[in-house]
Amino acid sequence: MTLIKICGLSTPDTLSAALAAGASHVGFVFFPPSPRNVGFDVANGLAQAVPNGRAKVGVFVDPDDALIDAAMAAARLNVIQLHKTAPERIAAIRARTGRETWGAVAVKTRADLDGARALSGAADRVLYDAKTPPGAALPGGMGLRFDWGLLDGFRHPLPWALSGGLDAGNVAEAIRVTRAPLVDVSSGVESAPGVKDAARILAFCTAVRGA
Ligand SMILES: O=C(O)c1ccccc1NCC(=O)[C@H](O)[C@H](O)COP(=O)(O)O
Question: Which are the catalytic amino acids?
Answer without folding.
Answer: 7, 129
